[in-house]
Design a protein that fits this description.
alpha+beta; 4 strands; about 30% helix; four-stranded antiparallel β-sheet
C-alpha cells in the first residue's frame, strides 16, 4: 500500500497509480448512482472508494465490468 501525502507526490506518481488500462476500466464503471457502505462511496466494482468528503481512501485492482452484451 502506498500513501500519497500531497499534490506534488500525486502528480509525480499519477501514471503509476492510474495506468491506461486502469483508467479504461474505471470509465466502464462511471457512476450514476454510487454504492455507499459505512459512509464510503464506491466507484465501479470497488476499484475506488471515497470518504464522506470526497477524498479517495482506497484504490483497488481493476475488475472487468460486465457490459451485458453477448
Amino acid at each position: 500500500m502506498k500513501t500519497i501525502r500531497n499534490k506534488a507526490e500525486f502528480i509525480r506518481d499519477y501514471s503509476q497509480i492510474f495506468s491506461v488500462k486502469y483508467l479504461a476500466c474505471l470509465r466502464t464503471g462511471a457512476p450514476h448512482n454510487m454504492f455507499v457502505h459505512n459512509g464510503a462511496a464506491m466507484l465501479g466494482n470497488g476499484e475506488v472508494w471515497f470518504d464522506g468528503e470526497g477524498l479517495v481512501i482506497a484504490l483497488n485492482p481493476c475488475v472487468p465490468h460486465e457490459t451485458g452484451r453477448s
